[in-house]
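Weekly modeling sync, notes
Attendees: S.R. (lead), two postdocs, one rotation student

Agenda item 3: backlog of single-chain predictions. S.R. asked that every request posted to the team notebook include the full sequence so nobody has to chase files. The rotation student volunteered to paste the first one in as an example of the format we agreed on. Action items at the bottom.

Example entry:
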Amino acid sequence: MLPVRQSVIAAIEGSALQAGIVLNAEQRRLAERLAMLDQPAGRRRRARRNQSSRGLYVHGPAGRGKSWLAQAFFDAAPVPKTRVHFHNFFDELHLRVHDSRDDPRALESALSELLGSSRLLFFDEFHVHDSGDARLLTRLLEFVFAHHFTVLVTSNYSPKSLLPNPIWHHTFEAGIAMIQNHLDVYHLDGPTDYRTQSPHHTTGFASGKWLTASPPGDFPSNDERVTLTVRGREFPVLAVRNDQLWISFAQLCDSPLSTIEYLYWADAFGDWVITDIPLFDEASREAQQRFVNVIDILADTDTPTTFIATHTVADFLATETTRPDAFRMASRLQLLHS
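Predicted structure, as returned to the notebook:
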């Protein structure tokens, strides 16, 4: 075994030990496969002279440890590297392309700026539900494979299941073909969603709470209501208390907000309180998708969040539908104190 590979596996195992995590057999096999990605590019090409794979696509159900293991590997990999999350990446990419929209090479220039001198790209929570995103993702894949990045992807979807809507699936067939041609596909499965068995945590998103009543005296008065501005657009919220954002479900999900606002507020406020959360199936389809996106962003930014509703989190999740990616939201909400 190569020294670099040994050190990466040791780093992953050390991170697991520190976090109190005992890797199961499938997770240990994935850790060993991840460590193979860290071989120097020239050596890897010689070792795989007759293979086209330059990376790894890890997929499987929520809560099986994909993102945790990939992040532990990423932290240990001693190479120039970039980690991107779906929502953050597309917000930044759209912004940069818009700023250079008169340049026919605007997208390529934006990708070069975003990825810099990185040789390893870790794309967490890869998913495709929109034909417009499919076209941009196809261009992204063309760029990173043409520039010989080592690519690591985690997803809840197998490559063939990306953009599952049959009306639009054909718009990402070229992207799926590139994934299958350039990446090894690894399925991490198992009967256990480990988030349902997580002990209570004291920091980050996992330290959050799901309350069925507001803390006495804490609920904002009408005098505390303020308006926040994001890129020239104004949005009313219940209150801002130093680093804490108070906002209702209606303000957050029934209004025409996008991931742009959610990302901005996740960066601006280190603590959130979301009030008046209805049962999931009582919200409109648009509000459901916005809430799924909010949970994605709050979990990725590790933002402590208090959720306030008249029903328990178990009752809320009992009404969870087949809305795309709602299963990932459900898995993450299992982390909360209730």
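Discussion: group reviewed the output briefly. The two ends are 46 Å apart (CA to CA).
Action items: rotation student to repeat for the remaining queue; S.R. to check formatting next week.
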